[in-house]
Specification:
The protein is α/β, with parallel strands linked by helices. It has 24 helices and 29 strands. The strands form 6 sheets. It has a 7-stranded mixed beta sheet with strand order 9-8-11-10-12-13-14, with helices on both faces. Bound molecules: coenzyme A (COA). The site of coenzyme A (COA) has 27 residues, from helix 2 and helix 5. Coenzyme A binds near residues 78 and 101.
């Protein structure tokens, strides 16, 4: 990333408005007026061949006539003029273009967009947009957009793919009391994309939290890397996760929305927190921009009302932070700050009698206690207390605790006075909500951030003992045969080249060879038909298991061939695979897809009927470390089965996580060739006994 060029684009010291106009109602008028009204301190150069003066500023026929340097040019002329204007900007030495004009790839004019970007690149310029609202920044007093005003000041930055949504959110920052330093409209992302913005905002001193509205990413792996490196919380609202929604998003921005599950996985790997909807994006942004991450699972709730306490308890379970009772010593101390009929467990119920002293005493003590990883304080408006005073008391107690590395979130439920108390709290750095559920959701975001960051920092270590050349040799052979589908035997050779423990499998093309192979492998064996035309071998009667001796091999050989002929008379039969018979264990499945946004992506789940019916699977963008493999194993609902539920022996999860890591390396390194693959079933044996890939399949990309 060229920081200096992006600084010119995003924090310009001089802006030209190309297409500036004196006609109110035109965007070229509004952008100039907004720059003036926002008290922009840099130079503003209106560009219009027909005017000498616009809104009291000297206007120029073209950027080439401007005497001073120009950092950024806001482009508000119709699309067809944009290529010429871009060339002029390049000649002038402009650093970046804010192309507000629409009429490019979003309506099919991809060539026009490419021409603009290519011209910009030739001159070392960066392009934001086209099809955007513009950029807004409080710290730079810069409203270079046609959004009505700068947002409520704060520490967050919003990057939005939808311009209309950005305008709506701009106004809503005031009603929802969530402060932003910057709003950036990113539109068609012809050049500057989410990864660039995350990288740039990561080093921006005025941004504490990055909020994203995403319809589709253009370069998934680059985004993951940028998010991991940003070193500050990132929260994403991803639309287009439903099949219908994805189609709407594609037609809206000309970008492809990836499948919801892969986005989920990628965000987790990138340390990105998800928002469920627009309101949730605001609520969570508030918490992430004001409070530190929650480093452990111990959440303590202090309340003056049993009802909101129970609602919060339910919400805590819903958002993945189930409550635990506080330890005895904590309970003993907390009892000093409540009447005899209060409860010191968790939630800590100070009762409706709670006044300032009890709120302060309990929160000061609880927040400083090592057991507490995060605190939620709930308050129901009562006639005996002043909400604003309670709010001030809570803030004072938090400050006096001396703790700054764990989060506190508050919910004040009531009327106007509670609303005032919430405003006061937010202004003083404590996120405050009007419902207990939202407060819990907000602190859950701070927990998710800490959890996801831990996963994001587990580095992948490449396994060096692999034979990539051997794998590519097999692929080349299959390509030479004009096929994209590898047989089980071919697939297993590639798996073996990546150190994956496959059940030994050899192809036999005659009955005698079958006998010899079975003897070499050792009885019992499994025999399977090998034919590119028979994918579901069992359905075709093409599989025989537990074959114990020579006579049975000969019999199975004849029967399988006859069954295959009966199933599909013209099937091309390559032979019969003889395979080591793997003992029984817990069945799991490993799979991979080539995701259009994120590239090779690995899937893991319980095998057999669990995968088909329960779809209990999890994804990660490849490659993953063995630690991340372990996170995947723990992420499925069926994890307890693998860990030895109900007296079963625990499975060899170390071996399984290693296999996941190697498998992910295989699909990553061969990502230019492999379209999809699976290892199904993989049998997991008890601890120390390893795992075995029983069946394997690789499908190549069409080229
Ligand atoms: N250099 C400088 N000024 C030029 C010019 C050039 N090469 N060519 C034309 N102009 C002037 C025009 O003369 C006009 O000024 P005037 O009012 O003094 O006559 C001004 O630039 C604007 O051009 P005009 O043709 O009147 O266009 P417009 O204002 O009706 O529309 C856009 C221009 C860019 C706003 C419009 O094409 C557009 O894309 N609108 C959609 C914007 C949008 O929604 N963005 C995405 C949000 S999500």
């Amino acid at each position: 990333m060229d920081i200096e060029v992006l600084n010119g684009l995003l924090r310009p010291k001089a802006i030209a408005v190309i297409g500036a106009s004196n006609a109110p109602g035109k965007i070229g008028y509004t952008v100039v007026k907004n720059l003036i009204d926002s008290n922009y301190q840099g130079d503003i150069y209106p560009i219009n061949p027909g005017s000498d003066e616009i809104l009291g500023l000297k206007a120029y026929p073209s950027v080439l006539d401007v005497p001073g340097d120009i950092d950024a040019a806001a482009v508000v002329v119709p699309a067809k003029y944009v290529p010429d204007v871009t060339a002029q900007c390049g000649q002038k030495g402009v650093k970046g273009l804010i192309i507000i004009a629409s009429g490019f790839s979003e309506v099919g004019f991809t060539d026009l967009e490419e021409r603009v970007v290519n011209t910009a690149r030739e001159h070392g310029m960066r392009v934001l947009g086209p099809n955007i609202v513009g950029i807004l920044s409080n710290s730079d007093s810069c409203n270079a957009s046609f959004a009505p005003f700068l947002p409520l000041p704060g520490k967050a930055a919003l990057v939005s793919q939808s311009g209309a949504l950005l305008i709506a959110m701009d106004a809503a920052t005031y009603t929802r009391r969530v402060g932003f330093d910057k709003l950036v409209s990113i539109g068609n992302m012809s050049d500057v994309n989410f990864a660039d913005m995350v990288e740039w905002l990561g080093q921006d001193e005025n941004t504490a939290c990055i909020s994203l509205y995403i319809e589709g990413l253009k370069n998934g792996p680059k985004f993951i890397q940028a998010a991991r490196d940003a070193g500050k919380p990132i929260i994403a609202l991803k639309s287009g996760v439903s099949a219908h929604g994805a189609a709407a998003a594609a037609s809206h921005t000309g970008s492809l929305a990836g499948s919801g599950q892969v986005y989920d996985a990628a965000f987790q790997q990138a340390g990105v927190v998800r928002a469920a909807d627009l309101n949730n994006l605001f609520d969570r942004t508030l918490a992430l921009s004001l409070q530190p991450p929650m480093q452990g699972d111990n959440l303590l709730i202090v309340t003056n009302g049993g009802g909101v306490g129970v609602l919060a308890t339910d919400a805590a379970e819903r958002y993945g932070l189930p409550l635990r009772f506080a330890p005895e010593d904590v309970q003993e101390e907390l009892k000093k700050h409540m009447p005899a009929f209060g409860s010191a467990k968790n939630p800590v119920d100070l009762t409706g009698m709670a006044g300032m002293d009890w709120y302060q005493g309990s929160t000061r003590y609880a927040f400083a206690h090592d057991w507490v990883d995060g605190l939620v304080v709930l308050y129901c408006e009562t006639a005996m207390t002043d909400p604003v005073e309670i709010a001030q008391g809570i803030k004072q107690a938090i400050d006096e605790s001396g703790i700054t590395d764990k989060p506190v979130v508050v919910s004040f439920v009531g009327g106007e006075q509670s609303a005032e108390a919430r405003r006061w709290l937010v202004e003083h750095g404590i996120p405050a909500y009007d419902a207990p559920d939202m407060a819990i959701n907000a602190i859950a975001a701070l927990r998710e951030y800490a959890r996801n960051t831990a996963e994001a920092t587990t580095p992948f270590q490449r396994h060096a003992d692999v034979d990539e050349a051997k794998a590519r040799e097999i692929i080349a052979k299959v390509r030479a045969e004009n096929s994209t589908s590898l047989t089980e035997v071919e697939s297993k050779v590639i798996f073996e080249a990546y150190g994956l423990p496959v059940a030994t499998t050899r192809l036999a093309t005659s009955e005698d060879e079958a006998v010899k192979t079975a003897e070499a492998i050792g009885y019992p064996v499994v025999m399977k038909i090998m034919s590119p035309d028979i994918l579901h071998k069992s359905d075709a009667g093409g599989v025989k298991v537990d074959i114990q001796d020579e006579a049975s091999v000969r019999e199975a050989y004849t029967t399988i061939l006859a069954n295959a002929k009966a199933y599909k008379a013209d099937a091309h039969i390559l032979g019969i695979a003889i395979q080591e018979m793997a003992p029984w264990g817990t069945e799991v499945i490993l799979g991979s897809i080539a995701d259009p946004t994120f590239g090779p992506t690995v899937m893991f789940g319980l095998g057999g009927i669990f995968v088909e019916i329960l779809k209990d699977v999890t994804f990660r963008v490849a490659p993953v470390s063995a630690d991340q493999g372990m996170t995947m194993i723990n992420a499925i609902k069926g994890a307890p089965i693998l860990k030895g539920a109900r007296g079963e022996e625990p499975g060899d999860l170390q071996a399984l996580s290693e296999v996941l890591s190697r498998y992910s390396q295989m699909i990553h390194e061969l990502g230019d060739e492999i379209q999809e693959s699976d290892a199904n079933p993989v049998i997991v044996y008890p601890e120390g006994k390893g795992v075995k890939v029983v069946d394997a399949r690789i499908i190549l990309k069409e080229k």
